[in-house]
Amino acid sequence: MHRLIVQYGQPTDPAEFDQHYRDVHVGLAQAIPGLLRFTVGHPRSMDPIAPGPYLIAELDFESADAMGAGMGSEAGRAAGADVATFATGGASMSSFDLDDVSPAG
How much is the pLDDT for 104? Predict the structure, then answer.
């Protein structure tokens, strides 16, 4: 499994960000070929001095190659292009292979 993490900074208008994300961007992301799982959340920083991101999205794919193919597709490019239309606080992306280190149970 390969995961893409998108962290969005604090937008200038949170209500507008949330509406666009929910009503437009989610649908664009869900159309990316090879997407297996897509989760989002508004994190709370555990460090009172350093604020956390406004929103984090996690997109899971079978492999790095599958993610590359999906993000390079027409749907992936459309979702990527849409970020500039609403992410006034910026966005950063990173990806990695998942390594399950859960305790045996």
Answer: 82
